[in-house]
């Protein structure tokens, strides 16, 4: 169910709103990340990770059809991201240290955005990144039961975005990118653009829509609600 819903919704949304990383393409605007995030919380990190990896592979085959690119970037990034979300959500960790780390990450991503993007795009993504951190801080402060999910989503998405930012440029060094006819290796700047774009466009859907969707799932299926320790 996780893989099927993830692939189907991602495929539909891409053809309704085919946005990709500015200036480089390939990496897509992907709000459907909320599906495997919910499965990772409800059924555990393995279900979230494997379902997301299979789902992104299916959607990649339908959209760009390059299995090597998908196996290098999409599959490992999605598995790592949602496995981390499922794992950290269940952990009873001290949230102050992760929040401080997320604050430092926010500052770093804003700096990267202004370093690698045009001023207008950098401002746009910076507003999203800073706004997402502000929303994260509010949710963490006001709703203790969602702290694990919010922090897990931030850490997991950072890991997944970093894998994409590293592996897509690496792929371009040896293979022709989808939609191109000749080899066009990407620079480190391209990797940073992918990292910022992926993180900035996906984090709002996770930290804002995750808790209400999970709350609805718990109400519909009380047996999935985690037992209180």
- Taking the alpha carbons of the first and last residues, their distance comes to 29 Å
Give the biggest beta sheet.
none
Which spans of ≥5 residues are poorly predicted at pLDDT below 50?
none
Counting DSSP E segments of at least 2 residues, the number of strands comes to 0
* DSSP helical segment count: 8
Strand content: under 5%
Mean pLDDT: 90
Q: How many structural domains in the coordinates?
A: 1
In N-to-C order, the SSE pattern is HHHHHHHH
CATH fold label: Arp2/3 complex 21 kDa subunit ARPC3
CATH class: Mainly Alpha
Structural class category: mainly alpha
CATH architectural name: Orthogonal Bundle
């Amino acid at each position: 169910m996780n893989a099927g819903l993830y692939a189907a919704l991602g495929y539909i949304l891409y053809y309704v709103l085919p946005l990709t990383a500015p200036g480089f393409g390939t990496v897509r605007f992907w709000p459907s990340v909320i599906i495997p995030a919910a499965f990772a919380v409800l059924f555990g990190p393995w279900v979230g990770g494997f379902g997301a990896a299979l789902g992104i592979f299916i959607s990649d085959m339908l959209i760009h059809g390059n299995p090597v690119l998908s196996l290098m970037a999409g599959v490992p990034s999605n598995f790592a991201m949602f496995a981390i979300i499922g794992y950290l959500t269940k952990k009873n960790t001290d949230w102050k240290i992760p929040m401080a780390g997320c604050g430092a990450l926010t500052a770093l991503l804003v700096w990267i955005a202004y370093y690698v993007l045009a001023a207008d795009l950098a401002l746009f993504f910076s507003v999203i990144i800073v706004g997402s951190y502000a929303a994260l801080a509010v949710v963490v402060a006001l709703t203790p039961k969602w702290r694990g999910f919010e922090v897990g989503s931030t850490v997991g998405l950072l890991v997944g975005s970093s894998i994409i930012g590293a592996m897509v440029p690496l792929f371009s060094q040896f293979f022709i990118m989808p939609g191109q006819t000749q080899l066009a290796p990407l620079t480190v700047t391209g990797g940073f653009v992918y990292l910022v774009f992926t993180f900035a466009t996906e984090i709002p859907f996770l930290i804002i829509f995750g808790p209400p969707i999970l709350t609805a799932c718990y109400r519909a299926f009380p047996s999935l609600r985690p037992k209180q320790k």
